[in-house]
Amino acid sequence: MTIRLGFDNYAVRGLRWKAPRLVEYAASLKVDVLLLSDLDVHESLGDAALREVKARADAAGVAIHVGTGSICPTSSMFDARRGTAEEHLRTTIRVARALGSPVARCFLGRGEDRATHGGIGTHIRNTIATCRAVRSFAIDSGVKIAVENHAGDMRATELVALIEEAGRDFVGATMDSGNATWTLEDPLESLETLAPYALTTGIRDSMAWESAGGLTVQWVAMGDGLVDWKAYVKRFDELCPGVPFVLEIISGGPREFPRPEPPHPGFARFAAMAQRGRPCPAPADPEDPAFQKSELERSLRYVLDMIK
């Protein structure tokens, strides 16, 4: 296999490391890619500081992917600290270009946005508008906007529709296997749908089971959940040449979701997966830095055993 392996700094957020230290850590783990998924991880967004981070990464042989948060001005997750949605995205693209990142990872919002006035469609249209406003700047910078299926905001087919409408020439997907389960989708089916659009990834395992209020999902370390990773990695290698396999391990407590009425396409596969699941213990403290580091490192070892 030719899969490039990496991790998202959010997996070890409790360490509160800035970009230079994260590059050192990535080098020590001998990964290929480091996704710096938020702008606050940088000590400075000035050109000199970014050049120094890039030089460190280049010397270590670690490719950097750059990211940020919501670029949808109507999402409950939008943060106006960095200006308008367009200004925020332009800043992210500038940082990506400076660090040699081919992508600017971002997202719409979260599942709660689906229940707001106008539904998820309103937020999708506003995210498309943000992307289109920076089209020339992104293309001139050599950076593609990689919109994530994030925290239950969009199903795979909805993200595909966003990308196609915004413009596939400069917009693609950050394909997140864990977030697929928060929209009650089978990660393998989500992979088949999003693979042609994938630019980068966020990968973790999930446990799911039937519960009194519907279906419960709990994110877990690689190999501790229900995903058939041998099948997933095989299809990923076939469908996503050149796309890195970036672990974003967020082992945490269970979250219950009501059964969708009416069921969306693909729900049957997720429900069948959940029938094989079982409740599992929640970690004592998901934000404990040592716990996060341990979960990431054993997940990396699990994947390496499959792809080496």
Structural descriptors:
308 residues; alpha/beta; 3-stranded antiparallel sheet; 11 helices; globular
Helix content: 40-55%
Largest beta-sheet details? 8 strands, parallel
Spatial strand arrangement across the major sheet: 7-6-5-4-3-2-1-10
Structural class: alpha/beta
Mean pLDDT: 97
Q: What string, H for helix and E for strand, traces the elements in order?
A: EHEHEHEHHEHEHHEEEHEEHH
Number of helices: 11
Kindly estimate the percentage of residues that lie in beta strands according to DSSP: 15-25%
Low-confidence blocks of residues: none
Number of strand elements: 11
Overall morphology: globular
Instruction: Report the radius of gyration as a whole number of Å.
Output: 18 Å
Cα(first) to Cα(last) distance is 7 Å
Structure description:
- The protein has 308 residues and is α/β, with parallel strands linked by helices.
- It contains 11 helices and 11 strands.
- The protein has helices at 19-29, 47-60, 85-98, 119-133, 135-141, 156-166, 177-182, 187-194, 229-239, 267-275, 289-307, and strands spanning 5-8, 33-36, 63-70, 103-107, 144-148, 171-176, 198-202, 205-211, 214-220, 245-247, 255-257.
- It has an 8-stranded parallel beta sheet. The chain has a 3-stranded antiparallel beta sheet with strand order 8-9-11.
- Strand 5 (144-148), helix 6 (156-166) and strand 6 (171-176) form a beta-alpha-beta unit.
- It is globular, with a radius of gyration of 18 Å.
- The mean pLDDT is 97.
